Every structure is written in C-alpha cells, then in structure tokens.
Amino acid sequence: MREGKFSNVYCVDKSKASLEKILNETKHVDLKSITLIESDGCNIDWKLVKGTVVIAGVGGNTVLKVVQSCPEAYRACITWVLNPFTSVEKFLKEIVQLMPNRNIEMFEAKEKGRLRLIFRILPIVRS
Ligand SMILES: C[S@@+](CC[C@H](N)C(=O)[O-])C[C@H]1O[C@@H](n2cnc3c(N)ncnc32)[C@H](O)[C@@H]1O
Question: What domains, with CATH codes, occur in the chain?
Fold first, then answer.
C-alpha cells in the first residue's frame, strides 16, 4: 500500500481505534481513496468485493473464520495472508481444505526486526 500500488483501498477492522490508526499511517500514501469499514471480517458481503483481498495482522484462527465466512464461489479474490501470528500450523492444515484448488506460496520478511510470514494463495495452473 505504501508503494502506491493500490489506488482504492478498503480497510475492514472491528476496532474503530485500529481504523483511525490506519488512516493516520496512510496520510502520506498516494491513494485515490481509502474507505474504512468498522466490521467483523466475518460479516463482509462478499458479493460486493472486487479486486485483491489481503487478510493481515490477525491470528490463524481468525484468518480461517474469515475465509469460511466467504462463500466458495467468491474465494478467488482472497490472495494474500500477511503474518498470521498464532495457530500457523492449524492455518496451513485447514486453509488447503478450504481452498483445495489453490497453490499456497510462503515468503519470509523482516519487519521491525521481527520475522513475518507472508502467504500468497494463487489458482493452480494446469498445463
Ligand atoms: C495485531 S492488530 C493488527 C493491526 C493491523 N491490521 C496490522 O496488520 O498492523 C489485530 C487487529 O485485528 C483486528 N481484528 C481481530 N479480529 C478481527 C475480526 N474478526 N474482524 C475484523 N478485525 C479483527 C483487531 O481489531 C486489531 O485491530
């Protein structure tokens, strides 16, 4: 987001304080628009979602709950999971069941001196 690769960004968080922090941190980022949505990630109306969905900064259990809340027909938009900081093993075991037709790539990145795991979930390309 900081690199300005996404012009219209929608941030969903159930905490108003967290949304205000995001707004503050993105003040100097070149975005066409940022929309803050105060909601549980499990209550998203997935029919209305377009573009790339990034699930960031929640534990593995919450990632799984958010993915489960998305009807299977709409799950293709869920592409990145950033740093599920708890229940990573459970996340890895169950995400492949929730998205059986996807490839999961894992990357490691250091942010603020700490190792973070990043997952990219892509469609399986058959040759
Ligand atoms: C550790 S903070 C991370 C904040 C920020 N997303 C980041 O990546 O830097 C976890 C955030 O996840 C939010 N959160 C936890 N469970 C959630 C859920 N089910 N739906 C929406 N937000 C949730 C909390 O309100 C909190 O703001």
Answer: 1-39 (no CATH), 41-123 (3.40.50.150)
